[in-house]
Amino acid sequence: MNVVAFNGSPKGAESNTHVIVDAFLEGAAAAGADVENVFLAEKNIAHCLGCFQCWSSPTGECVQKDDMADLIETYAAADIVVLATPLHNDNVSSHLKVFIDRLLPLADPYFAVDKNKETIHPSRGGRIPKFVMISNCGFPEKSHFQVLHLLAERMARNYKTEFVAEIYRGGGAWLKEPSLDEAVARYRNLVKLAGEEVVTQGRLSGETKAHLELPLIPSPDYIEIYRTTVNRYWDGVLGGRT
Predict the structure, then answer these.
(1) In angstroms, rounded to a whole number, what is the distance separating the alpha carbons of residues 134 and 87?
(2) What CATH code is carried by the domain that includes residue 59?
(3) What is the pLDDT of residue 65?
(4) How many domains would you assign to the chain?
(5) In this model, does residue 241 exceed pLDDT 80?
(6) Which of 107, 122, 194, 204 is the most exposed, having the fewest neighbouring CB atoms within 10 Å of its CB?
C-alpha cells in the first residue's frame, strides 16, 4: 500500500502541520505501508489557467511545464492520499488549493450524474485513492474546522472516493510548546495509531477519533489557558498593548 501526504503548509518541515503528518506516516509505515511526504511549498506549481487545454488533449496534459506533472503521477500511484494543511481563513492553505486545482486533468470534461442526482465530472480512469484530511489551526475550538469538514465531504463526492479519516487539531501552537512535550508525545502516539488503523482497517476507528479530539491538556479551562498563553506571547513580541 502506498500512502502519500501532500503538505500544504508554507513552513514545510518546520510547521505544526508536519508534527501531525509525520506521526501519521510513521504509524502507516509501521503497519507496512510505503509512505512519502511531499512539501508543496518546495515545489514549483503554477496557478491553474482555467484554459481547459488538459481536457482538450487526448493525453490530458497541462500546457504548463512545472512540477505538477510529476506530482500527478505520485498522486495517481497512491492508495491513500493525505491532504494536510494549516487552517487559513477557515480553509486550506494557498499551496494546497493550487495543488488541488491542478488535479483537473484527472477529470473527464463530460457531465455525468451521481447517486444524489447532482452533476459531476467522471474520472478519466485509473486508480482513485482514498483521502485523509489533516489540519491544525491557531484557534483552540474544533468549530473552526466546519468549512474544512464540508470541503472534505464535497471533495469525496467530486473525486468519487471517501475520506477515511479527518484529523483536526485546534490550538496548533501547542504542538511545539516545550513545556507540553509529554502531552504532545501522547497525542503523536494517537496519530500514529490512526495511521496504523487507516492502513490495516481501511479507516479510523471511533475510539481513536474520539481520543484525538480531546484537548492536549486535561483542563476544563484549556481554551482560556490557551488564549492567555497566546496573548502573552504577542505581548512579548509587541511589547504589550499600547
Answers:
(1) 10
(2) 3.40.50.360
(3) 95
(4) 1
(5) no
(6) 122
Is 200 in contact with 31 (CB distance < 8 Å)?
Answer: yes
Residue scoring higher pLDDT (216 or 241): 216
Q: What's the confidence (pLDDT) of residue 121?
A: 93
* Of 83, 121, 87, 78, residue with least CA distance to 99: 83
Average pLDDT (64-92) is 97
Question: How far are the Cα atoms of 156, 194, 216, 222 from residue 37, in angstroms, in the given order?
Answer: 21, 16, 25, 32
Residue whose C-alpha cell reads 487559513 in the numeric block: 88
Q: What pLDDT, on a 0 to 100 scale, did the predictor assign at position 190?
A: 98
Q: Compute the residue count for the chain.
A: 242
pLDDT tens per residue, range 98-145 = 999 999 999 999 999 998 999 999 998 888 999 999 999 999 999 999
Specify the amino acid at residue 131: F
Q: Which three-class secondary structure string do you get for the chain?
A: CEEEEEECCCCHHHCHHHHHHHHHHHHHHHCCCEEEEEEHHHCCCCCCCCCCHHHHCCCCCCCCCCCHHHHHHHHHCCCEEEEEEECECCECCHHHHHHHHCCHHHECCCCEECCCCCEECCECCCCCCEEEEEEECCCCCHHHHHHHHHHHHHHHHHCCCCEEEEEEECCHHHHHCHHHHHHHHHHHHHHHHHHHHHHHHCCCCHHHHHHHCCCCCCCCCHHHHHHHHHHHHHHHHHCCCC
Residue 213's domain spans which residues?
Answer: 2-238
Confidence band for 8, pLDDT divided at 50, 70 and 90: very high
